[in-house]
Specification:
By secondary structure, the protein is an all-alpha fold. 87% of the residues lie in helices and 0% in strands. The chain has a domain of 79 residues. The termini are far apart. 0% of the residues are buried. Keywords: Cell membrane, Membrane, Transmembrane, Transmembrane helix. This is Cytochrome C oxidase subunit IV.
Length: 149
Amino acid sequence: MEHNSAAIAEHGHSDDGAVKEIWKVTLILSVLTIIELVLGFWMMGMPDGALRYSIKGSIVILMLAKAFYIVGYFMHLKHEVRNLIMTIVVPLLLFIWFIVAFLYEGNSYKNLKNTYNSYYKERTSQQQETKEETKEEKGEEPKKSDAAE
């Protein structure tokens, strides 16, 4: 181990690069977070429509970019072998695909059940009417008691 000024200067130079990289990562993650927050607050009062859904999609894409950036730098996968990265990324993507596929299939089943099963459709509409009538009755009762006093 050398104790001369060249070794110390060389060691200090590598620390500067690491510090710059940490600041760069912090800045990128902060900018992405601020963009997400601005889009989220802008979307709050907006009615449902294509613009709202595109903003939601943009926020999800920004969140995924942040997640991959965090995994790359803080879990040190950026410097790993490609095969190790694929053992983590491929199962994650398959799991996301699995969730989306089952949500889509469940929604399709619900819609088909409501469309083709007339008994189920009639029965659920009666339950909704009963709930609405009950709410109206409860809403009217306090008004009648206030008038009686």
